[in-house]
Design goal:
The protein is α/β, with parallel strands linked by helices. The protein has two domains: about 5-100 and about 295-340, 3-Layer(aba) Sandwich (Rossmann fold); about 100-285, NAD(P)-binding Rossmann-like Domain (Rossmann fold). Helices cover about 40% and strands about 15% of the residues. The protein is built from 14 helices and twelve strands. It is globular. The two termini are about 35 Å apart.
Length: about 350
């Protein structure tokens, strides 16, 4: 019996490739080449599944050109690269890797918060440049974390994990804003209080963004929101690039309207806005929120298990992004066919 063929679009752990190789004919990309779109589509010909890492765009045009494709498995919790309605219309399953990176990404959020508040990057660069020749009372004084007010915009799993670290580890007063208010038991677990978006920006000493990206959330933090912030406050983004108007943020940082920013995600990444890289009071990291070895392996294995589960056993490891919509569509098609018959 001929094995089904899949494509692994980027380099992954060898043991994950070996696991996939037990079930499929695998075309891999261990050279980690960033294929042009035309090349990506060419390599998808005849493939029933693709292992993606968040940067490979799956849309209606690609799906039309790749009629054999049945499932796209993202090794990421985000899926901005998926046109989910187009995938559902084409009958293609869309999966991601939720849950397994929650705690690691929350750790990174708190790492950035602390590094930004205590001016870590700026002071390290000063030391490495050989400029440190004496102690002074105000040298790189930043803001306290313990006992301060932590504002979280986006209170999903990762947001709540950040809140727990702040409330229980540092005695922070935690406030949050979300599209909908949490259930009372979840608020209690996070020791967090719901406020309006405007009040969050006015009251918080440190703000952490943990929102998914959508057209509705584009530049949800702009000049208007930044103007509400205290001059001693900081802002951290571990959600998605595009949530912050980076030009407005850079202007505020350059004018010292706020103390600092910590960014792990960027609009247009891997390109980074040069207005940000020119500044000293911003901590910049290359989208490494989930970058611990155990977590990245868990993400890769979940994506692989989704491919194996769906294509070999007819059952996903985790519920997919569009499983309900796809199920509804298939039911509608079956009904339509029975009517015609």
């Amino acid at each position: 019996m001929t094995q089904q063929s899949i494509l692994v679009a980027r380099a992954v752990f060898p043991e994950v490739l070996a696991k996939l190789g037990e079930h499929f004919e695998v075309e891999s990309n261990q050279e980690d080449t960033i294929w042009p779109r035309e090349e990506f589509i060419r390599r998808l010909q005849g493939k029933v599944g693709v292992f993606t890492t968040g940067g490979e765009r799956i849309d209606a045009a690609l799906l039309k050109a790749c009629p054999d494709l049945k499932i796209c498995a993202n090794m990421a919790v985000g899926y901005n690269n998926f046109d989910v309605p187009a995938m559902t219309a084409a009958g293609v399953m869309a999966t991601n890797a939720p849950d397994v990176l929650t705690e690691t990404t929350a750790d990174m959020g708190f790492t950035l918060l602390m590094a930004t508040a205590r001016r870590l990057s700026e002071s390290e660069a000063y030391l490495r440049a050989g400029q440190w020749n004496k102690w002074s009372y105000d040298m790189f004084c930043g803001g306290d974390i313990h006992g301060s007010t932590l504002g979280i915009l986006g209170m999903g799993r990762i947001g709540r994990a950040v809140a727990r670290r702040g409330a229980h580890g540092f005695g922070m007063n935690v406030i949050y804003h979300n599209r909908s208010r949490l259930a009372p038991e979840l608020e209690q677990e996070a020791n967090a209080r719901y406020v309006s978006k405007q009040d969050l920006f006015r009251q918080a000493d440190h703000i952490v963004l943990v929102l998914p990206y959508s057209a509705e959330n584009h530049h949800t933090v702009g000049a208007t929101e930044i103007a509400l912030m205290k001059p001693t406050s900081t802002i951290v983004n571990i959600g998605r690039g595009g949530l912050i108007d980076e030009n407005a943020l850079a202007a505020a940082l350059a004018a010292n309207k706020i103390l600092g920013a910590g960014l792990d995600v960027f609009e247009g990444e891997p390109r980074v806005n040069p207005a940000l890289t020119a500044l000293k009071n911003v901590v910049l990291t290359p989208h490494i929120g989930s970058a611990s070895v155990p977590t990245r392996k868990a993400m890769a294995n979940l994506a692989a298990d989704n491919l194996i589960g769906y294509l070999v056993h007819g059952k996903l490891k985790r519920l997919s992004i569009n499983s309900q919509a796809l199920s509804n569509r298939l039911n509608d098609l079956s009904f339509s066919l029975s009517v015609k018959l």
